[in-house]
Design brief:
Shape of chain B: globular
Radius of gyration of chain B: 17 Å
Mean pLDDT of chain B: 82
Distance between the termini of chain A: 50 Å
Largest sheet of chain A: 4 strands, antiparallel
Largest interface: A-B, 47 and 77 residues
Radius of gyration of chain A: 22 Å
CATH topology of the largest domain in chain B: Rna Polymerase Sigma Factor, Chain: A
CATH class of the largest domain in chain B: Mainly Alpha
Strand order of the largest sheet of chain A: 1-2-3-6
Shape of chain A: globular
Distance between the termini of chain B: 9 Å
CATH architecture of the largest domain in chain B: Orthogonal Bundle
Strand content of chain A: 15-25%
Low-confidence stretches of chain B: 1-13, 116-128
Mean pLDDT of chain A: 77
Largest sheet of chain B: none
Structural class of chain A: alpha+beta
Number of helices of chain A: 7
CATH superfamily of the largest domain in chain B: RNA polymerase sigma factor, region 2, helix turn helix motif
Strand content of chain B: under 5%
Number of domains of chain B: 2
Order of helices and strands of chain B: HHHHHHHHHH
Oligomer: heterodimer
Low-confidence stretches of chain A: 1-5, 86-107, 120-131
């Protein structure tokens, strides 16, 4: 009897066949989050599994078509995921808010302005000022970069993360709002994942009124994703829980 | 070579067509949604029916799946896989969720007896469709244990642990057979004309 941690790779087949229990599935999906080649394999195996339905094709009862279409007509559709990308300068320097169709962008913009303003107040706490000085100038550099992009992504189970990212600065500024409150024994930890493996970017500051102060994440590489997980209060060496936030960072 | 058989049902649209339809559905295009129904309801209902078995429940689940397509078409991300795969995953997961949540263990055991013969039943029901024939040929190319592991999970809706219990083999063996079986299936389906 060998005692060792099972290699999550071997679950790829069972995953593609929906043959994992909930816990196994979450664990595997977490693994996929940090492994591009596993994602590609999982997708190709899913594709193959889906082909198995070719041999079971069967005509549904004829009345179903009308029912489904009528029901759809009464069902509200989900908005696409909010991954707003907008040049910061345009809104930041008050050239004017985008017109109505761009309202989502405008709202994301207001959100971050509020978050940043609050954050700026919070970090003016007298004793901490010197610690934050360097960070603050880094933050300002990202926010003022000509290529800065704003993105907002929904967190699970609730809340949102807003990211301002600059390719030239290879850094991003992260704020969050309304993430679930954590007990003192836990913290939110930020990760970068990509070709250079999984790197911790540090812990999220503790929230004030549900929002976290802007945090600088430097050393981005092309193709990185940013994730946030719940970890023990001291931080962890590797992510150990499913991400509450996961964001594919745009490439230049 | 592969002449279409007369009287064959038109082939389901390719994934690229479905992706195009989904983009329209996401914008509330009900004609595109009807198009999705017309081209994919048969394959969705078929697999749901295979897993769930009860016709009334299968109808319900099929409706849920298609409404989910309507509701969440905007969430389909071509970067994550093909549109067809996205749809079949929705359908299969819903079907599996239904049997796992609703079915009492006693009923599940009764199903186990039925499921053991699943593959043969499936084979008999196969229509004379080229796609289906190809899948059958590729299934036949698997080892017995690979085929049983894959079909019990996919058509029977069992977890890999349950499949291991049904087949009386180690859990680890079933995991690898599922993966190897699907890899072989994928390569076979991908390389055949």
């Amino acid at each position: 009897m060998r005692l060792r941690r099972t290699d999550p790779h071997t679950l790829a087949g069972a995953y593609a066949l929906d043959a994992l229990g909930e816990a196994d599935r979450e664990r595997f999906e977490h693994h996929l989050g940090g492994c591009e080649s596993c994602k590609a394999e999982a997708a190709s195996l899913r594709d193959a599994a889906g082909r198995l339905a070719e041999v079971t094709a069967a005509a549904p009862p004829p009345q179903l078509r009308g029912q489904v279409i009528a029901e759809a007509a009464r069902t509200r559709q989900q908005a696409p995921p909010v991954r707003v990308t907008e040049r910061v300068r345009r809104s930041w320097h008050g050239v004017g808010w985008p017109a109505a169709p761009r309202m989502a962008v405008a709202i994301a913009g207001v959100g971050i302005l509020v978050a940043l303003a609050l954050g700026a107040l919070l970090i003016n706490d007298q004793h901490r000022l010197h610690i934050y000085d360097t960070q603050r100038s880094q933050i300002a550099a990202v926010l003022n970069a000509p290529d800065a992009d704003i993105m907002t992504v929904r967190a699970r189970p609730h809340g949102a993360a807003t990211v301002v990212m600059s390719h030239t600065a290879r850094a991003l500024v992260l704020t969050t709002a309304r993430l679930p409150a954590l007990p003192a024994s836990e913290c939110y930890q930020v990760w970068l994942m990509g070709r250079h493996g999984v790197r911790s970017a540090g812990r999220l500051p503790s929230p004030k009124q549900g929002m976290t102060a802007p945090m600088i994440v430097a050393g981005l590489a092309a193709g990185d994703r940013m994730g946030v997980t719940v970890e023990p209060a001291g931080g962890a060496a590797r992510p150990s829980s499913p991400p509450v936030v996961m964001l594919d960072l745009p490439t230049a | 070579m592969t002449a279409e058989l007369p009287g064959e049902r038109p082939r389901a649209a390719s994934g690229a067509d479905l992706a195009g339809l989904l983009a329209k559905v996401a914008r509330g295009d009900d004609a595109a949604f009807a198009g999705v129904y017309d081209q994919f309801a048969t394959i969705v209902y078929g697999i749901v029916r295979r897993v769930v078995r009860d016709p009334a429940q299968s109808e319900e689940v099929t409706q849920e799946v298609l409404l989910e397509v309507w509701r969440t078409a905007s969430r389909f991300d071509p970067g994550e896989g093909s549109a067809r795969s996205w749809l079949m995953t929705l359908a299969h997961r819903r079907a599996v969720d239904r049997v796992r949540s609703a079915q009492a263990s006693a009923e599940r055991e009764a199903r186990a007896a039925v499921a053991a013969t699943d593959y043969d039943v499936v084979a008999e029901e196969v229509e004379n469709r080229l796609d289906a024939q190809r899948v059958r040929r590729c299934l036949d190319a698997l080892t017995e244990l690979q085929r049983e592991s894959v079909t019990l999970a996919y058509y029977g809706g069992y977890t890999y642990r349950e499949v291991a219990a049904l087949l009386g083999v180690a859990v680890g063996t079933v995991k690898t057979r599922m993966r190897d079986g699907l890899i072989r299936l994928r390569d076979c389906l991908g390389t055949e004309p």
